[in-house]
Amino acid sequence: MAMLESLLGYMLLGTALAIDNYCPFYGPQYPPPTHLHQNSIFNAATNNITSTLNAALPSDGTINTTSFAIQIFSTEGSAENPLFTYY
C-alpha cells in the first residue's frame, strides 16, 4: 500500500511540475502572423504545394471519383478571402 501511495505522490508531483512548466505556443509572446499573402516564404510554400499536387495527380481524368479541397485562411482576414485554395 505504501508503494501505491508513493507512486500516486510521484504522479501528482510530476503533473504539478508539468503544469508549472506549461508554455503555450499561442499567446501574447507569440502573436499570430499577419499579412501572410505578402510573405515571400508563404507564397513559395503555397506554390510548392500546388506544383507537388499537380505533379502527383494524373491530368488525364482517371481519378474522377475522388475529390478534395485544401483551404488556408487567416484569423485576421475574412472567410471570403482565403490565403490559399486548391480544389
What is the global morphology? extended
* Secondary-structure-derived class: mainly alpha
Strand ordering within the main sheet = 1-2
What is the percentage of strand-forming residues?
5-15%
Low-confidence stretches: none
Biggest β-sheet strands, sense, barrel: 2 strands, antiparallel
Compressed to H and E, one letter per element, the order equals: HHEE
N-C termini distance: 60 Å
- What's the gyration radius in Å? 23 Å
The pLDDT mean sits at: 74
Which terms summarize this structure?
single chain, 87 residues, mainly alpha, two-stranded antiparallel sheet, 2 strands
Overview of the molecule:
By secondary structure, the protein is mainly alpha-helical. It has a domain at 28-57 and 68-87. Helix content is 41%, strand content 7%. The protein is built from 2 helices and 2 strands; from the N terminus they run ααββ. The protein has a two-stranded antiparallel sheet with strand order 1-2. The longest helix is centred in the N-terminal third of the chain and has 19 residues, at 2-20. The chain is extended, with a radius of gyration of 23 Å. The N and C termini lie far apart (60 Å). The model has no long low-confidence stretch (mean pLDDT 74).
